[in-house]
Amino acid sequence: MMRGSLIGAVIAREWRTRVVKRSFLIGTLLMPILAVGVLAGTVLITQATDTTNMVLVEDAPGLISRLDPASGQQVPRCPGCFPEREKLTYRFTREAPADSIWLEEGFTVLVEYDGSVLQNRAGYLVYDKSPGTTAKRNIERDLSKAMEHARVLESTELDWQAYQRLKFELNLIDREVNGDMARVDGGGEEVRGLIGFFFSAVLFLVLSVYGGMILRSVVEEKSNRVVEVLIAAVRPEELLLGKVIGMGAVALTQLVAWSVLSTLAFSAFQFVFDTGVLGAPLPGQGEVPTDLLTAMAENELTSILLDINWTLMALSTIGYFIGGYLLYGSIYAAVGGSVQSEQEGQGMVLPIIMPLMFAYIIGSGAMSNPEMGALTWLSWFPLTSPVIMLVRVAVGVAWWEVVLSWMLLMLSARLVLGLAGRAYRFGVLHTGKSSGWSLLLQWIRGHGRS
Amino acid sequence: MTNALSIAQLEKSYGAQRVLNGVSFEVPKGAIVGLLGPNGAGKSTLIRSIMGIVEPDAGSIHLEGRPWSREVVRGIGYLPEERGLYKDMRVGDQAVYFARLKGMAKADAVSALRHWFERLEVEGWWDKKVSDISKGMAQKIQFICTVVHDPGLLILDEPLSGFDPINARRIIDEVRALASAGTSILLSTHDMPSVERLCDEVVMLNGGKVVLSGGADALRESGWSGQQEVVFKGNDIAFTNALGTLGHLDSITTEASDGLRRAHLRLRDGVPPGQLLQALGGAVEVNEFLKIRPTMESLFIQAVDQTAAASSAS
């Protein structure tokens, strides 16, 4: 049998014993259902609670409204200050009825203030159920503009038209100078940083969980005494490589299964949503989007998902997963070979995972400042690059930096794999009393070479 | 004829401790060679050196006349003393896995394993998990995994540990059958009766050195110091008179069942057993005349004691 086939046999065993297992199947099926369930829940709950707000403005001093003789109703003095908004309509009155009455009349919110509002800039928002932050912000914005209009009218020096002409708001549009010294559209770094961080967090989790599984697998082979038979047939380095690749294949299988099942579950939810099977809008709900993508775009949280370049991020994640996994998986395996029990191994995990945790923490900081200088160095350093570079890829980075960083990672992984194989060989066949760090130190010093 | 295994001047040290000190011996083709030695004698290190698990400092290992290589070693059937199976894996699956690591194609492995499972009467355990089978059953599976690829050389380290007497006999029979079919076997064990029953040759290690080696029969013969057992019918005085100066009588006891007398004696140096038999023939009725050769255990203890005495003297 060729050496490749031997490693292939090891890979196949590692993969088969973990994938053909009830717990793996349940975990793989459950995760996408939960993820799409959370998304569906967010969209549906948002829709259910996102009712049209009928706002009654008690304009006691008559600052922003006047009586329209034709209709006998209070109407805004500045109609343009109340642009047409979805799910927000206004009525004005000089004197509001009791709370029970305006609530019974179908109003959801009452705004009240007195004549001092122009000085102290404060009023009350009264409701029985919160209208939500978006609605509150819009009400504040509209009423502020109407008040502004009232103040201008009070002024003897300005009229509203002149004020509108003089009023100035600077709008800065992001333009970024790229590597070719050309200006391109910029901005949105924070959102993109968040997206990158999401992927690096997934990678951090996968590297930690599956690294731990490698450690347990090695300890198991030591404790159930299978290892000596294996080492007689396969070189320790090959066994370690097969184990790391096999476990990596399990992780990839799960990631791919999650992606496919999530897409299917998302499509199913989209179909159900778009065909209106979920039913008509609830009473008082007003107009609701009839397709899922529009509904997601209207929600602050779910709209981020639509900004993701899934293909680019998936490719980068897979590339850095392979490198990071080989690097950390080898270290986990070497540590597994040096300990006598899983508990002892768990005690040694923290120092190994420290650089990755450090990268994770820095990565979370990078969301608010994705172009800070330290990120560049950390995205090249192999122990932190798998997590950090994903944030930079999401924000935008020169291609040669990604290639350089990935090559450094792969080279380091190859080097560590070789060293880990030797440490593993020394560790798994060691029968003395020393174990853990002391055994690894013994190996590093070259004592008791096998 | 080419030996299945030739070891010459093998040396191995762990730090300051020399574990193998110029070990040399051969395993002829088709022979069963017993590797004996007290704990810490260097047996496991020697076997691990052959298997490429540890790297010797000096010396050479030849397999089937070819210098040691990983590819040649893969053909060896190796049953280590420290052995086990994956608990959560099905018996059949892991047997196939081990066979594949030994270079067998999957279909061949399944076919050969089915044959061996039937032969050792464990065919019903193919789909069971190891955690569901007994220790003795697991030992049988390990034995099957060792021999399934039809190895030219078998290295068995304490193969009978964990077996009840019935299954131990079964394994001994299988080992004999394999040797009869031409498989060469290196058997490391502390179980001296099995060495006497199985081994054609013996190599004894102590302190990392070969202290005794040769054909099992020849070693026991050379260790014979004149002990004889005679079962006879007749008078004790007549027996003693007939023995005369040919040897020294140790004891005479009466057999409870039939009243026969059983005598233990030691012949004088140079006196052949035939001469005693001739002398006794005229005095008593000799029913049994047995040459009492030393057991492997006594040879083993004697060799260890001699080495200890020699090293303390030096």
Task: Quickly list its features.
heterodimer, A: 450 residues, D-Maltodextrin-Binding Protein, domain 2, two-stranded antiparallel sheet, B: 314 residues, alpha/beta, Rossmann fold, six-stranded mixed β-sheet, four-stranded antiparallel β-sheet
Write a short abstract of this structure.
Chain A has 450 residues and is of the alpha/beta class. Chain A is 64% helix and 8% strand. In chain A, α9 (236-274) crosses α16 (399-428) and α12 packs antiparallel against α13.
Structural class of chain B: alpha/beta
CATH fold call of the largest domain in chain B:
Rossmann fold
Indicate the low-confidence ranges of chain B by residue numbers. none
Question: Looking at the structure, what is the overall shape of chain B?
Answer: globular
Shape of chain A: elongated
Main beta sheet of chain A: strand number and arrangement?
4 strands, mixed
Number of helices of chain B: 11
Specify Rg of chain B, calculated over alpha carbons. 24 Å
Helical residue percent band of chain B? 25-40%
The main sheet of chain B orders its strands as 6-7-8-3-9-10
CATH superfamily of the largest domain in chain B: P-loop containing nucleotide triphosphate hydrolases
Mean pLDDT of chain B: 88
Q: How would you explain this protein's 3D organization?
A:
The complex is a heterodimer of chains A (450) and B (314). Chain A has 17 helices and eight strands. Chain A is an alpha/beta fold and 450 residues long. Chain A has two domains: 3-41 and 185-275 and 288-445, no CATH class; 52-166, Periplasmic binding protein-like II (D-Maltodextrin-Binding Protein, domain 2, 3-Layer(aba) Sandwich), CATH 3.40.190. Chain A has a four-stranded mixed beta sheet with strand order 4-1-5-6. In chain A, strands 2-3 form a two-stranded antiparallel sheet. Chain A has a two-stranded antiparallel ribbon with strand order 7-8. In chain A, a hairpin with a 5-residue loop joins β7 (175-177) and β8. The radius of gyration of chain A is 31 Å and the shape is elongated. Chain B has 314 residues and is an alpha/beta fold. Chain B has two domains: 3-221, Rossmann fold; 225-291, 2-Layer Sandwich (Alpha-Beta Plaits). Helices cover 37% and strands 29% of the residues of chain B. Chain B contains eleven helices and 14 strands. Chain B has helices at 43-50, 70-74, 91-101, 106-119, 135-147, 165-180, 192-198, 216-222, 236-243, 273-281, 296-313; strands at residues 3-14, 17-28, 32-36, 58-63, 66-67, 77-79, 153-157, 184-188, 201-206, 209-215, 227-233, 247-254, 261-267, 285-291. In chain B, strands 6-7-8-3-9-10 form a six-stranded mixed beta sheet, sandwiched between helices. Chain B has a four-stranded antiparallel beta sheet with strand order 2-1-4-5, with helices on one face. The longest helix of chain B has 18 residues, at 296-313. Chain B is globular and about 75 Å long. Chain B starts with a strand and ends with a helix. The mean pLDDT of chain B is 88. Chains A and B meet through α1 and α8 of A and α2 and α3 of B.
